[in-house]
């Protein structure tokens, strides 16, 4: 039985939810993901997740809708998805050998109204040789990910440590999402 709608085209978010035992449908939102002038990155991901959830909820009546948005924050500046390979290279070089924040905003629209929050984790990235960087870029993995890397992919090899939830870095802070779903009566097919 389909119990909710995931308002996301991210295969990573879908995999996290499926591996937690949930059954759902996917409906990718079509919203403008441009940051507002001077917008705080953490406020931005909550706003975008809320926009996505509300946009998709209009198409699904009374069904519960979950949406999320993730950004990488370095020195207070949001690094979204790279525009191209050169932008990905620039982003990854700026992250190498440093710590940064990955923030994921989540919004859940249900009969109980809107619940929205942000969760963040600190990622400590190692320094890559130029050959390793170019090898990673050649995989194409960096092009549709905030901050130009995918922790669940090859990038796991150059992340030294995560302070916080790994699932937040992947794109969906599972413990809080599960708690919300439990509180509104969404049951897992398997626990």
Topology order in helix (H) and strand (E) letters:
EHEHEEHEEHEHH
* Number of domain modules: 1
**Total of DSSP H or I helical runs spanning 4+ residues:** 6
Q: What structural category do the secondary elements indicate?
A: alpha/beta
Q: In angstroms, what is the radius of gyration?
A: 17 Å
Task: Please summarize the sheet with the most strands.
Answer: 7 strands, mixed
Inertia-based shape: globular
- Helix content range: 25-40%
> Low-confidence segments, ≥5 residues, pLDDT <50?
none
In what range is the share of β-strand residues? 25-35%
What top-tier CATH class fits best?
Answer: Alpha Beta
- Strand segment tally: 7
- CATH architecture group name: Alpha-Beta Complex
Classify the fold: give the CATH topology: Maf protein
Written overview of the protein:
The structure is a single chain. This protein has 191 residues and is α/β, with parallel strands linked by helices. It has a single domain, classed as Alpha-Beta Complex (Maf protein), CATH 3.90.950. 32% of the residues lie in helices and 27% in strands. It has helices spanning 11-19, 41-57, 85-95, 130-138, 166-170, 174-183; strands at 4-7, 24-26, 64-74, 77-79, 99-110, 113-125, 159-163. A hairpin with a 2-residue loop joins strand 3 and strand 4 (77-79). The longest helix is centred in the first third of the chain and has 17 residues, at 41-57. It is globular. The mean pLDDT is 93.
What's this model, at a glance?
By secondary structure, this protein is α/β, with parallel strands linked by helices. The protein has helices spanning 11-19, 41-57, 85-95, 130-138, 166-170, 174-183, and strands at residues 4-7, 24-26, 64-74, 77-79, 99-110, 113-125, 159-163.
């Amino acid at each position: 039985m389909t119990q909710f709608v995931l308002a996301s085209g991210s295969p990573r978010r879908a995999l996290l939810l499926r591996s937690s035992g949930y059954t759902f449908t996917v409906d990718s939102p079509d919203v403008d993901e441009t940051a507002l002038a001077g917008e705080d990155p953490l406020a931005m991901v909550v706003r975008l997740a809320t926009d996505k959830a509300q946009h998709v909820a209009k198409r699904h009546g009374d069904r519960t809708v979950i949406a999320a948005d993730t950004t990488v924050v370095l020195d207070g500046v949001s690094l979204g998805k790279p525009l191209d390979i050169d932008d990905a290279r620039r982003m990854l070089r700026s992250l190498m050998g440093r710590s940064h924040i990955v923030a994921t905003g989540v919004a859940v629209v249900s009969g109980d109204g809107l619940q929205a929050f942000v969760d963040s984790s600190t990622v400590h990235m190692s320094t890559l040789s130029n050959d390793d960087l170019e090898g990673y870029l050649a995989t194409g993995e960096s092009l549709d990910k905030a901050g130009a890397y995918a922790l669940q992919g090859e990038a796991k090899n150059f992340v030294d440590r995560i302070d916080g939830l790994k699932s937040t870095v992947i794109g969906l802070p599972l413990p809080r999402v599960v708690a919300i779903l439990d509180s509104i009566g969404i049951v897992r097919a398997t626990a």
